[in-house]
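Exercise 7. Predict the joint structure of the components listed below.
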Amino acid sequence: MRSLARAAFSSFRVSIRLRAVSPWAYLSWLLFPLLFATVGLFVLSRPGATATHLTYGFLGGGLIGYWGFAYLDAGNGIQDERWNGTLEQIFAAPTPLLVILLGKICGSLLFGILSFVPTMALAYFGFHALLPHFDAAPFGISFAVLTFSFMSIGLTLTPLFALWRWAFSMLNGFELGVYVLCGFMFPVTVLAPWAQGVSGLLAPTWATRALYASTTAEGPHDFALWWLAAIGLSVAYLVCAYFLYRLVDSRARVSGELALA
Amino acid sequence: MERIHSHPANPEREYNQPSSMAAPIAPAIELAGLRKKYVTRRGTFRRTKVENLALAGLDLAIQRGELFGLLGPNGAGKTTATKILTTLLLPDSGTARVLGLDVVKETDALRRRIGFVFGGERGLYWRLSGIDNLRYFADLYRIPPEISRRRIGELLERLGLADRKHDRVELYSRGMKQRLHLARGLLNDPEVLFLDEPTIGLDPVGARELRLMVRELANAGKTIFLTTHYMFEADAICDRIAVIKKGAIVAEGTPSSIKRVVEHQGVVEFEVVAIPADRLAQLRGLPGVGSVAVADHELGQVVTVHCARPADVTTQLGVILEGYALQKVSSREPTLEDAYIRLIGDST
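Solution:
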């Protein structure tokens, strides 16, 4: 067990090191979230905007950056491994791929959290946005639940990237869809009823709802319910992930898709 | 198939051979009827399924402590065989056992006991230092830290990378990268080491150094499965070799026994520009000609003729290739490469 924990931590450390020297990573956590945050804050700070609107501007850019990094980096990470020729090397190591990728995804999540630094600075200094009803405890728990939900989605989708080279491009659109469906920049209540149904199946929707509720005075504050919904859905994703990793173990060895050729 | 059975050439590993008194030791590697095909799709709109047979029923037995070479041209199935043996691919049928463990079912136990090195520059994290690459893989191989620290230090020293261990891999020469690959493959002190074309792309000095290291590892008792298409490499270091063609073994034995395939034969070589197919056919039709191989060289071609009576062929050359400027016509004794070409067949 200790050797598995060491392998996961080593994977986490390598993930951080590789991101730290990757120009793409800086675009992902610094530039792209700033662009989203700027547009969002301009729209949400129009005359007549309430404090709640600005809250979405304050946190939304960071959330988009966090999700984008966590999700895209998981996929990119696998593609990079394939291009580097290291995907086969890590697959053939006596550590389960799930453990190695867990470390990598945790590294991506840590980098993704950095997205909040530039976006919150922009909101505070550029638009004088604040979180007037910030409640630290539910905010911290909601953020942890959100992180768990991102990790679960990352762990569930990463095996697909390992299995099929085309999966990454096919699932690229999922990144943008989640911005909207999970209510990162505006409440999901503004979406069409059918879209809200889809939102309900996504764990980050409930964690995001709790996160925003912990910073505003308006609306219900059913934190426990929302956290449970997010955790429950995340666990369901992880169950799927378990079977997907078993599929990778057999299918990838049939098709030889771990290598480029 | 020309199966030329022999005993391992290296007497230093006699202790690994089963004796009549001791219980028989299972071969380090055992393949029986191993088949593998790849299914790909061709076309943009009307996609059609294309099946490529990579292994067509491979049978092999490699004893513990042997340095075994699998030779074959590109696409013969060498890498597929290596990937099946290193648990990266599943065979369609047949069985493969390494150290007595089934490569399909007993992967966890097997992965701890084998190492592999694929040729080329890929397979390393270029933006990490050499030592960081090794530390990472040592953790993935679940080697206790106190052992991995010592072993990494020893490997870096032994492979001449200690002075550059903190440099990023992207700054390494190709030879250094290949040595780092070898260090990675040896991290878990494997009982069997698989080397898939390890000297590909290396300069002659680097390739020679690597071959010496491989030979040293075999002398130290490791079983080594080496694939290559460099004949001299197999001739220089392997105890036993097998020649693979279109996924099947066509010959197996010691390098010297394989060379006997072209015993009592000679080789005529010459250079020519734009030799037409009909003249090559005439050459092939000469009495005593075994094979004719053509390789591009600068603006012309080098033609290699394997034959029973080189003097007769040399005489006939002037007739068949009248009007063509023949250069550097020579006759020589056959090498392992000639035996290989004979086994693999004519190439044009």
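Discussion. The longest helix of chain B spans residues 204-219.
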